[in-house]
Structure formats: structure tokens, C-alpha cells
Structure prediction request, 462 residues.
Amino acid sequence: MTEQIPLQKKVLSENDRLAAEIRGRLDAHKVLALNLVSSPGSGKTSLLERTLAELGSKLNIAVVAGDVQTENDANRISRAGGTVVKPIITNGKCHLDARMVLDVLGDIDFAATNLLVIENVGNLVCPSSYDLGEDMKVVLISTTEGDDKPLKYPGMFRRSSAMVVNKIDLLGLSDFELARVKENALQINGTLIIHELSCRTGQGLDRWYAWLSDMMAAKKSGKLVQHVDSR
Amino acid sequence: MTEQIPLQKKVLSENDRLAAEIRGRLDAHKVLALNLVSSPGSGKTSLLERTLAELGSKLNIAVVAGDVQTENDANRISRAGGTVVKPIITNGKCHLDARMVLDVLGDIDFAATNLLVIENVGNLVCPSSYDLGEDMKVVLISTTEGDDKPLKYPGMFRRSSAMVVNKIDLLGLSDFELARVKENALQINGTLIIHELSCRTGQGLDRWYAWLSDMMAAKKSGKLVQHVDSR
Prediction:
């Protein structure tokens, strides 16, 4: 297993090269790109469905939806009004890499696109190591998971710019405490933007939409600070 | 990236050799070994806490608790009365491998142990590829995730012998349907044993304890069919 480390470095540096190519294309057209990451079941697809229902008629939103198997998520997103939806089936691989994303971006007209959302494979570990050319990672956590997740999976929370705490309508049904998850997350990454919302009841979504608009405006005006932390 | 496939095969075959060594030691003492796998937050640690509180005074249960970072789970399990609890911090790695497990098994007295439970890293993808010498994998899914998870992460459900559907007290609070998750799981693996329970309310736990006892008895009498599916 001694060859694994240099090989992994080589794979990652090739990934970085392709991610830079994606980032260059997005930046040329000032398209904001988010990489949505979380455990399976935290609500990445639900958040996208809600966001497309609210903003999809006003904005051109392209979505890349990765899954280990099935196009279930891509189908849900298409039904919700995704302007352009590109499914990627990883066939057992535990993360998206820049090559997979680059391969499906081909015919997207970025000149006519406001926002690209990449929905990663449900996995709190591996996707954190792969830059996909995004402006920022947004990590979701739901109130039915444990509030110590940021401490147990620090890589993902360190490399994300924003954390969405989903399913706040279910607060009180478990030991999960909102104050504690925020404290744990900020201990790992003091600059995290935190959203608290429920994709089911809609609570907190207005602030999420407003933040997305702010980020898109910042990208257009060249004022967005990209968060690429490869620690 | 063309070197990745042969290298991965080599790493996995080395893992298989070490897993066989673990299995040999467990079989010599007829110790039942379970590999608990799930997404982060499905309730692996909660199920262990409950099981140790119920059975820990009657049986000698050894636990190996894997986490990417922190010993939080191992500490919770120790408080619940784990006879022997061995934490493994993977330091960013997304799964346990047989080498890590072998390294902590050293001083466990298997002659005086009835059950070994290995709590894997919270991840529905990568741990499915690593045999840890267990008799069977038990995959957890909770009712706050999506009921299409077996279709989206088929490898894990195919390689498991049992599926625990946790948090059934929260049924009805989302679109999750019990009948649908069972149908989806059985479509992937028609021989899955299915448990429905709530670690919070205790519902369904009696059947889980009874099943564990049956499996331990089967192991003792040499009648347990080990489920090692490396597809």
C-alpha cells in the first residue's frame, strides 16, 4: 500500500488541473457555482427542488446531479423545473471528480446561465478532497443526524463556505441542539455562513434565496471571494 | 489514472488476506462479528448504546468504534457499558480497513467474548468494499433519509445480511414510506433480514435482541452462514 500516497497525489493534481479548467469557463461568464455536499438523506435534492421552484422561472439554473446509481435525483430536479439538468452516475465511485463534471458541462450555454449547482454524491468524507471548479462548497446537515458531525467529519466543514442546517421543523424530536451544531461547526471553520431552514415547511428559505442572490451579484461584480481550501 | 484499478485490486487483496486472519481468530472462538454500516447519523451508536444497556451485563460484547475524527462514539459506547471498547480514528480515511481493525484486536480475549461489533465510519459507499473479517454487515437506514437509498447505494445493501430501519417513531413526518424502503431493499438483495425499530422509543428492539441471540447461537453451533459478497 506504499504506492497509494504518491498515486493519490497524482490523481488529485490531475483533478486540480481539470477543476481549474471548469473554473476558468465559469469565471469567464461570471456564473456562480456551488458544490452541494452532505450525508445521504440530509436534503440536497429537496433544497434544489425548492430553490428551482422559487428561482427557476427568473434565473437560468443549471444542475449537475451526481449519484452512485440511478437518476432519481436528476429526475426530481427536472420535474421541479431545472433549466438544464445533467445526471452523472458514478457507478460505485464515492464522489464526483472534475473529469466527470467537465464531461457533462460540454453543451451548457454559460453565457445564458446565472447559477450552476453541482449536487455531489451523498458522502461526508470523500467529496471533500475533490475540487470541481466551484466557487464554494455548501455542506448540508439535518437535525435528525448528530450535532457532533462537524467534529467527526472536519474536512468537509473546513472546506465549505456555508452550512445549511435542514429539517429544523423536526427540532426537539431528538437530542440534536441547534446551538451545539453551530458551536461545533464554527470551532472547525470560524467563517462558515450558517442557514437554518426546513425544505418541508419552507421556514428559513427566504434567507437562503436572498443569500444566493447576494452571492450571484458578488460573482457578477467580481467581488466574490472563492473558497478553495485544499488542506 | 489508469494505474488506479490494478493498485486498488492489490490494496483490496491485501485487505482480504488480513480480513481472513481476523475471521480465523473469531471463528476459532465462535465469536459472532457484525460490521455496522450506514450514513452518518442513521443511529449506529444509538443502536449500540441500547444493545449494550440491554445485553451488556449478560454477555461480553467487544466494540470497535471507527470515526474519521474524535472518539465521541467510543466514549458514548463506553458509558453505555461496553465491555471492551476500541476506538479507531481514521484521520480522514472514509472507511475502516482490516489492518486498522487487526491492530486494535490484539489484546481482546476472544475466549471470553460473545459478540464483536465493529461500528464503521458513517459512509454508505466506501466501507462496502472492505471486508473486516465480520460474519455479516448490518446496514442502518433511518426514516428521515430517503426511502430510495437502497437503489442509490446498491453496493452496501447487496453486501449486507440485515437492514435496520431506525427512527420509526418519526414515520409520517416526511415522505419516507416503510413499505417502499423494504421493497427497494429487497429488490437489491432478496435475502435481507429487515428490522424496524426506534432507538429513541425502544419500539422493535426486542426483536433485534432476539435476532442477535439467534445469530450468536447459530455461530456457536457452527450453523451460521457467513455472508461475504465481494461483488
